[in-house]
Design goal:
Length: 134
């Protein structure tokens, strides 16, 4: 895609700091470095996001996550990792090319905050909505 920054990185038109590449994906350090070693895993084929991906495209991308995540944790001496994938602006997606954030975690004050807020929703009603036939 013409205006996609990740497509330009993949094509070598924009520099990046790559940490992994094969025929299907490329992984490079995120320029924001939320934590030290924050890496983006990107499929070489342009797809807007996971919601627009085929099951095969998603499976191929996610099949690369465990090995790369473990290498980053080991080499960066991290205590854990957040693996984050955003879809559409409302969910925090800012580059509209599928990608996965691999964010090494070092401690409570390492710069990344991920919080879940509890709500008192009717779980049975939500399940009914999700499973109902159209």
């Amino acid at each position: 895609m013409e205006d996609c920054i990740f497509c330009k990185i993949i094509a070598g038109e924009i520099p990046s700091t790559k940490v992994y590449e094969d025929e299907d994906v490329v992984a490079f350090l995120d320029i924001t470095q939320t934590t030290k070693g924050h890496t983006l895993l990107v499929p070489k084929k342009h797809v807007r996001n996971l919601l627009a991906s085929s099951p095969e495209e998603a499976a191929l991308l996610f099949s690369k996550v465990p090995a790369l995540a473990n290498i980053i944790v080991e080499k960066m001496h991290a205590k854990g990792m957040n693996i984050l994938q955003n879809n559409e602006s409302i969910a925090g997606q800012t580059v509209f090319h599928t990608h996965i954030h691999l964010i090494p975690r070092y401690g409570e004050a390492d710069g990344f905050v991920g919080e879940f807020t509890a709500h008192d929703y009717d779980l049975a009603e939500i399940a009914k909505q999700i499973t109902e036939s159209n």
